[in-house]
Design goal:
Layout (H helix, E strand, L loop, with lengths): L2 H27 L7 H11 L5 H5 L23 H31 L5 H24 L3 H25 L5 H22 L2 H17 L7 H21 L4 H21 L5 H21 L8 H26 L4 H25 L3 H26 L3 H21 L2 H21 L11 H22 L3 H35 L10 H33 L2 H25 L2 H24 L4 H8 L6
């Protein structure tokens, strides 16, 4: 009996008791009529009988209500700590104590050979069945928790008795022990459905996944083991379709994973690749479908909402690692294609989840989680399949595709993954990639930098087209990063040119030709300054043309850095001619910029508020 229905019944009994007491008090306090008034009343009643005969002839008798039942610990609210300790934990501890005491007694009886092996197993089986049957007596009286505890005890005794009959005393063959345990598991699952008890279903799952461990003989029986596990998983899937028992998915998945890993590390070999891959795919498919078809619980708390999300994420990661471990030693490219196929599967699931799932909070989050997993597997596939700078180009292309899709479906979620892929590409390009070039400009490095610049320009364009502040900030960061990458690309090309000039000599550099080596260094350093000043000038022109203070500020920063280089480094390192050129060019550039700002040739002061676009590139 549910505690809430028990409290309602108690309230009804209390109300009935109060009603009876009030009625008896009213009857006791009612005044008796005077003798003189009685004849008049009788004659009046004779002349005009207005009172119904049933009321006149028969007095209502108050019903005999039983006293309200005493409140038990099981009916107290769960927040009552005292009741919870007494009714729940003392119950569990008491059952454990009884089990331990009986175990000691049986051990004492076994040691003294009071009971033979067959008698011991029979006693255990009969005791387990008796405890399960006896527990129904308590359930019928409303003591559900105590009843389930007794069932757990009886079911555990049955499993241990069958284990002892096979492993310890060898009284029955493995097949009979296995079928007997299946019967116990099926009976427990049937009781769970009949009594609508999730805890009994958990007992059935625990016993079912413990059966292979209890009956293990140390032999490799992959087909039998994983077929049995698949049946258990399908049973758990059927339960969550018809019952809101999502926690069973976590329990069954944990049991499946433990059995799979235990078998894999003990018995797996490359010759069993196809069968193992087939079973791993079957397990993955079951738990990929489960979040879509699992019935929604009545109590939508955070835990029940998080169960399908957690299961979907863990199932995807574990399955990929399983297949990766098996395929890596066979064919590395196959792993990359597998990751792309898995991404396609999750794109398909993301489209199905909104139709299949009935819970809006779970449906929307699960939809985005599937998209995230798809993007993640695409990102993983690129470094597996590609090499060197092709990985970087792949991440940039992925970012561009995600930006385009996100703009079409208006998804900030995909925009976030596009930025993540773009960040990976930029970091790899600037920190990891090491190019070996034989030609200037038209080489793999400049091609990779050009792709990065194009994608950053696309990011700035998409961000500038939106009106929210977050998009404007992303666009501004993309513009800055675009200019940095362009400047780094040109600087590295300059460095490679002069390194090639130094390496073209047929004779090694010595103190005799040190002057020539020093001349090449001076020209290189001057070229750096000229390049940076030219790029700063270009940015300043673009800033004036676009009336963008944001771009002009970047130009000012770059020119300031170049100015510091000229005054700090070029003065002491460059030759006289290049030093003069550096100062003259820098001075003319600074004077020109100053003149434009002082004369306000573009009338920036009158148009700044209405026309300037801070994040416009």
């Amino acid at each position: 009996m549910d505690p809430s229905s028990t409290e309602l019944q108690e309230f009804r009994e209390l109300l009935r008791e109060l009603t009876a007491r009030v009625y008896r008090i009213e009857q006791a306090l009612k005044p008796e009529p005077s003798p003189a008034a009685k004849p008049a009343a009788v004659s009046k009643a004779t002349e005009t009988p207005v009172v119904p005969p049933a009321v006149a002839e028969k007095k209502p008798v108050p019903p005999d209500f039983p006293p309200p039942p005493a409140r038990t610990a099981a009916s107290l609210p769960e927040s009552d700590l005292e009741s919870r300790i007494a009714s729940h934990w003392f119950n569990r501890i008491g059952i454990a104590a009884v089990l331990i005491g009986v175990s000691y007694f049986l051990k004492f009886a076994f040691d003294n050979e009071w009971i033979g092996p067959a008698g011991r197993i029979s006693t255990g089986l009969l005791a387990g069945i008796a405890v399960v049957v006896w527990s129904e007596r308590f359930r019928s009286r409303g003591y559900r928790i105590f009843s389930y505890s007794l069932k757990a005890l009886g079911i555990g005794v049955l499993y241990l008795s069958l284990w002892g009959a096979f492993q310890v005393y060898h009284l029955i063959p493995a097949g009979m022990a296995f079928l007997s345990m299946i019967v116990v598991t099926a009976a427990t699952a049937a009781m769970a459905v009949a009594q609508d008890a999730e805890i009994l279903a958990a007992f059935a799952m625990t016993g079912g996944f413990s059966t292979p461990l209890l009956l293990s003989t140390g032999q490799n029986r992959e087909l039998q083991l994983f077929t049995y596990v698949a049946i258990l998983d399908l049973g758990a899937l059927a339960l969550v379709v018809f019952k809101p028992w999502r926690r069973l998915l976590l329990l069954s998945y944990a049991g499946t994973l433990l059995l799979y890993l235990g078998w894999y590390f003990a018995y797996y070999s490359r010759s069993e690749l196809r069968l193992t891959l087939a079973f791993a795919t079957l397990f993955f498919a079951i738990y990929a479908i489960a979040p879509l078809v699992a019935r929604d619980p009545v109590n939508q708390n955070n835990f029940f909402v998080a169960v399908p999300l957690f299961l979907a994420f863990v199932n995807a990661g574990v399955y990929f690692l399983q297949v990766y471990a098996m395929l890596e030693e066979v064919d590395k490219s196959s792993t990359a294609w597998f990751a792309l196929a898995l991404a396609a599967v999750y794109i398909f699931l993301s489209r199905q989840v909104r139709v299949r799932s009935a819970s809006p909070p779970v449906s929307q989050t699960l939809h985005f989680l599937h998209l995230a997993l798809a993007v993640g597997f695409i990102t993983i596939a690129l470094p597996i399949r590609l090499n060197a700078h092709w990985i970087t180009i792949g991440w940039f292309v992925e970012a561009a595709v995600l930006l385009w899709v996100a703009s079409r479906v208006r998804s900030d979620f995909l925009n976030a993954f596009a930025i993540a892929a773009l960040s990976l590409g930029v970091v790899r390009l600037l920190v990891i990639d090491n190019f070996y070039t034989t030609t200037l400009i038209f080489n793999a490095r400049m091609a990779t930098f050009a792709v990065a610049i194009a994608v950053l320009g696309l990011t700035a364009w998409y961000g500038g087209a939106r009106r929210d502040e977050a998009a404007k900030m992303v666009a501004a960061g993309a513009v800055i990063l675009l200019n940095v990458i362009a400047l780094v690309a040109l600087s590295r090309e300059t460095s490679d040119y002069f390194l090639r000039q130094m390496s073209m000599r047929s004779t090694p550099w010595t103190t005799n030709n040190w002057a020539d080596y020093r001349h090449i260094q001076i020209v290189r350093d001057f070229t750096y300054s000229a390049l940076w000043m030219s790029y700063g000038t270009m940015l300043m022109v673009v800033g004036f043309w676009r009336r963008s203070a944001f771009v002009r500020w970047q130009a000012l920063v770059l020119i300031a850095v170049t100015t510091m280089k000229v005054f700090v480094y070029d003065v002491g390192q460059l030759d006289r001619v290049y030093r003069i050129l550096s100062f003259i060019v820098l001075g003319v550039l600074l004077l020109a910029i100053s003149f434009v700002y002082q004369r306000d040739l573009l009338q920036l002061s009158t148009r700044r508020r209405s026309e300037e676009r801070p994040a416009d590139a």
